[in-house]
Every structure is written in structure tokens, then in C-alpha cells.
């Protein structure tokens, strides 16, 4: 089972992505994560969520091999729908969500982190918007939670990595010095949050979301319309084959 969950006595729900070798997330796992996050609204015992990846890094993107393997447009439609449902669920989650991001966040990983309330990452962690290399166009609305407009455009058009230490200068990431410190700091912040009055905490989350007014579901659907067009024309399939054959390895530190 690639998705694990545990709930502490303090009310910290930890969701763990464990899909070796690089935590590429498939369609079914996206649905499972979205369901678990959305269900928090009906779980008063949950005060904060920590989302993390097991093993080599946070999330190495969507499962591109699965997309290529499924017939017709089933794979890309499944990924787009799953990515939308998960990032909307994270943004709209009834309680704060802390992302514990170590070593890398690729493609979908950046979108997921950008939809969370707090992101903890090591200074050398690489955030890569790999969509263009992968024949896709979406993700800007989620990534806006991590970097300003012009930097986002550069990162998206070049697919070059943005380091955790840089994101910390924008105030969007809590950067720690090394990979081993990421999860302890994420858990420390979660414990501080979990100690707050639960009804006030949920109201505060709703208030912040109301002021931010980031309609992830609608805007991401609008962005990914071009991705679906690229797939219908056949351009995206070739890009994904290149990505599978070697492009992703250039983003990942897997030793």
C-alpha cells in the first residue's frame, strides 16, 4: 500500500507516500490521498495534517509510465483529475497542512507542496516544475504558493530546479540546513499548531482561505485544457517518452 496514515494522541494526522523508487504517484494513489485529506472535515480529532514522502524524496511527479500505459486519453485524464482533486483537497482541508519536503519535489510534487499551508524543506532541496518537459501546461496556480510571478515563469519555461534556500527568501518555505532536519521541524510545527484550540484553528484556516481567494480547482482545470489539447494532437506523448527515457533522472538525486 503506497499511502500510509497514522494519528498521534495530539491530533496530528501523518500521511506518508511510499512508492519506491522515486515516489511517482499513480492515479489510484492520488484518489486515496484526496479522499483522506477531504475526510478530515468529518474527523474532529484531527487538528493538523503532515504530508511527507518516504525514502529518496518527497514526490517525483505523477506516474508517467502509467499514463503512457493506459489506453487512449485515460491516463492523462486520470492524472489531471487526480491532481486537481488532491491539490483542491489540500488547499481546502479543514485544518492546516504541513508539507515535509526532503531532497526533491518534481512536477506534481511542486503542485502538492504549493497547495499546502506550510512547507518545510532542506536548503538544497530541488523544486522542479517539469510540466513542459513532460508535454503538459498546468500547475501555475498551485506553484504561485511558492514563488512570485516572474520567477514562476522562469521555472516553468526552463524546467530548471529552484532550491529550498531560494524559496525561503520569499517566505514560502521553512528551510532547514539538512535533509535529516526536515521531518523533525515539520513535526515540531505540527505539534505547536495541534496545541491550539481546535474550533478556532479550523475557523482560522477557513478565514485565510477566504482572504487568499485562490480558486485552484477552476484555474487548474483552465490551465490543463491546453495539456489535453496537446495530448489530442499527439505532441505530449512524445514528450513523455523522452521524460521517461532520461529527463526525469536529471532532476532526481537517487543515491
TrEMBL record:
It comes from the Bacteria. This is Enoyl-CoA hydratase family protein. PANTHER family: EG:BACN32G11.4 PROTEIN, ENOYL-COA HYDRATASE. Transmembrane segments: none annotated. It holds the Pfam family ECH_1. InterPro entries: ClpP/crotonase-like_dom_sf, Enoyl-CoA_hydra/iso. It comes from Nocardioides endophyticus.
Amino acid at each position: 500500500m503506497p499511502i500510509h496514515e497514522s494519528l498521534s494522541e495530539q491530533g496530528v494526522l501523518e500521511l506518508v507516500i511510499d512508492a519506491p523508487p522515486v515516489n511517482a504517484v499513480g492515479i489510484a494513489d492520488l484518489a486515496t490521498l484526496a479522499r483522506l485529506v477531504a475526510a478530515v472535515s468529518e474527523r474532529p480529532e484531527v487538528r493538523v495534517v503532515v504530508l511527507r514522502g518516504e525514502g529518496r524524496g518527497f514526490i517525483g511527479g505523477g506516474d508517467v509510465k502509467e499514463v503512457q500505459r493506459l489506453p487512449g486519453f485515460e491516463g492523462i485524464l486520470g492524472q489531471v483529475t487526480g491532481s486537481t482533486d488532491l491539490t483542491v483537497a489540500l488547499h481546502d482541508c479543514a485544518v492546516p497542512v504541513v508539507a515535509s519536503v526532503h531532497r526533491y519535489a518534481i512536477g506534481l510534487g511542486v503542485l502538492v507542496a504549493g497547495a499546502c499551508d506550510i512547507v518545510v524543506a532542506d536548503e538544497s532541496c530541488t523544486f522542479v516544475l517539469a510540466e513542459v518537459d513532460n508535454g503538459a501546461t498546468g500547475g501555475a496556480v498551485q506553484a504561485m504558493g511558492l514563488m512570485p510571478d516572474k520567477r514562476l515563469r522562469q521555472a516553468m519555461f526552463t524546467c530548471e530546479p529552484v532550491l529550498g534556500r531560494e524559496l525561503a527568501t520569499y517566505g514560502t518555505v521553512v528551510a532547514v540546513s539538512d535533509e535529516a532536519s526536515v521531518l523533525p521541524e515539520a513535526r515540531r510545527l505540527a505539534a505547536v499548531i495541534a496545541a491550539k484550540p481546535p474550533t478556532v484553528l479550523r475557523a482560522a484556516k477557513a478565514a485565510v482561505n477566504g482572504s487568499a481567494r485562490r480558486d485552484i480547482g477552476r484555474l487548474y482545470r483552465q490551465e490543463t485544457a491546453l495539456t489535453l489539447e496537446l495530448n489530442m494532437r499527439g505532441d505530449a506523448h512524445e514528450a513523455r517518452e523522452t521524460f521517461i527515457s532520461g529527463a526525469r533522472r536529471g532532476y532526481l538525486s537517487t543515491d
